[in-house]
Each structure stands twice: as C-alpha cells, then as structure tokens.
Design a protein that fits this description.
Helices cover 59% and strands 3% of the residues. It is globular, with a radius of gyration of 18 Å. By secondary structure, it is mainly alpha-helical.
C-alpha cells in the first residue's frame, strides 16, 4: 500500500515531498477508511502509536507491486491520495495527533515518550467512518445534492430516509 503512494508521488512530480512521515500518515488514513468501508483491514501490518504519530514499519518498495494490486484496493488508495495526498507530512502528522485513535493508544504517555503500542483496528474503523462523512461533505457537489434531496423530501409524501453513505454512493455514480 505504501508503494502505491510512493509511485503516485513520482507520477505527480512531488517525490521530494513524499517523506516516510507522509507515507505513514497516508497508510493510517487508508487503513482507517478501508476498515470503515469493508469491515476488514487493508493490510495486516500493525500501526503503532509512535511519538510523532502513527507508524507502520515498511519494507523497501518496488513499482512492479502496483501491477499485482487488486483494482478495488488501488481505487481506495487513489481516493486517499486525492483527498490526503496534497497535505504536507507535518500537516498529516498534526491531523493524526488530534484524532482519538492515536491519542487513545498513547494515553498515559508523556509527549516525548517512545511507544510501540498498537492503534486498535476498531478505533481506526470508527475514525474511517468519521473521515468518510467528512469526505462526503467536502465533495464539491455535496451542497447541491443535499439541497435537491431536502427539496424533494419537503415536497414528497414519502417517508424514505437517507442512509449513511447514500449521498456519497450517489455522487460516485454520477461521477462514473
């Protein structure tokens, strides 16, 4: 998964910005969103609550790996790249420090204390649900779609309720 982000950085000509820290934070968000969307980990490696944020110890990447990656995982990583890839590594680190999975895993530790305590998958999944909601709301068409849905709901006699993620799914179907 890390290799995907590294290759994308080269494709987007921002390889100088692709630090280990940035890869680590992108992996953190990718794992979180995958857990929320598919109820299973994107990768098996443990994410640990290190002093400077979430870290997943990484092997050296090779570009051939991308060709072997399943399409659905590549699509998820593409979405993570599109949404979070523009942030500098320090911005991503700062964001993760404000979120409960990392804070919970470091509870009781001094800020400068070393730690390899794992960040719990269920906490990453809950964060993933929060991030999916945020990504949906940040989509450029979200406000228009919501206005149309509300307008329709106010003029309709139907009692159909909108389910979680339905707007995102509808937006994606329009964009495909």
């Amino acid at each position: 998964m890390a290799r995907y982000f590294i290759v994308r950085a080269y494709e987007d000509s921002i390889e100088a910005e692709m630090t280990n820290m940035k890869v680590q934070k992108l992996l953190y968000y990718a794992q979180s969103l995958h857990l929320a969307m598919y109820d299973e980990p994107l990768f098996e490696e443990e994410i640990q609550a290190w002093r400077y944020g979430p870290v997943c110890p990484l092997p050296i990447p090779s570009q051939e790996f991308l060709l072997e990656m399943p399409k659905d995982k590549r699509q998820l990583l593409e979405e993570v790249w599109e949404y979070f890839g523009g942030y500098h590594a320090y911005q991503l680190s700062g964001m993760t420090h404000l979120e409960f999975p990392w804070k919970k895993a470091r509870k009781g530790l001094l800020p400068e204390a070393s730690s390899t305590k794992p960040i719990l998958l269920e906490d990453l999944k809950a964060l993933g649900h929060q991030k999916l909601d945020q990504i949906e709301r940040d989509h450029p068409a979200y406000q228009f779609v919501m206005q149309e849905i509300l307008k329709d709901a106010c003029t309709s006699e139907s009692s159909t309720r909108i389910r979680k993620g339905e707007v995102r799914d509808w937006l994606n179907s329009l964009l495909d």
